[in-house]
User: Fold this.
Amino acid sequence: MTDTLPRRAAFPAPAIGGVRLEAPVLQAALSGYSDRAMRVVARRHGAAYCLGEVLLDAFVVTADRSRRNRSRLALSPEEHPVGAQLMGSVPEDFPPAALRLVEEGYDCIDINFGCPVKKVLGRCRGGFLLGVPATALEIVARVRDAVPPHVPVTLKMRRGIDDSPESADRFWEIFDGAFGRGVAAITVHGRTVKQKYVGPSDWEFLAAVKRHAGPRVVFGSGDLFSAAACLAMMEATGVDGVSIARGAIGNPWIFAQARAALEGRPVPGPPTIREQADVLREHWGLAVELHGEALAGRQMRKFAIKYARLHPEWLAVRGALVAVKTNADWQAVLDRFYAVDGPGRDPSADIDETAGCDDAGE
Assistant:
């Protein structure tokens, strides 16, 4: 499925600094998921911009040239523009990592101030930094000063550590201070760090952020599991684009569907069984090319659980796909369950929006 239709003027394509996007539909950084294989599939299905999985600054600086380490930094020519997301705790550790990512070919550097995972917070990374504006803004300034002027620097934030007035004050201090130090765009997730993935994302807060930001570029994140939700967020909040995270795992069709909704076109229905099979083969092949067959088998099990939800026999398909270890196994499942075409099912109908994952970017 390919989306090449023109944009609707009501939701113009934003720019991240000097990087102009085709549409206001982005794929967020997803720890453990958004490797090159996932990003290429997303781009082929309508994502205008993707972020790689979050990378620790120390890993980026010290990563050797082994296949496993290279796979975490690897890019494809068809991905551009593409961003890399950095996470850490010590301001002076960020610049060398950012510079290496620029050298690897990434077009933008994104800084993670949003991850709510306990082990990340315990190491003073991610969402922890929303509670220490001075450190957060020092990181921003050091990265902006380190990378070339043409490379945009962006942020990912949640709406605060918690719902206290002190947390809100720190959010605005970091938000305005980051733009003042030269960031090109900020993605805001409508949950607090304390909420993790529980409860609704606060879109009223996103609307307030965009009103405050004015012409500065703000992307919205949280509860984007369907094209209808993407359109609703854009209309309700005025953000410049939507950053889709968990809703894109195993469902790259969401990008073309969201673009259709934002452009006022009929939204394509769920992919047919045959269309699903084509993408499952495509994603598997890209994963094997990136990781090798053995690691691809382990990596793709996480995606298989989500891809299965689009199949009418999704429980049986999920059980078969999660047992896959080799290319022969993968192809056998496709031959068994995907040989006969038919309508797919809407995966957003049974989304458990309280269920978290190990993503550090949503």
Notes: The radius of gyration is 19 Å. Residues 130 and 160 are 6 Å apart (CA to CA).
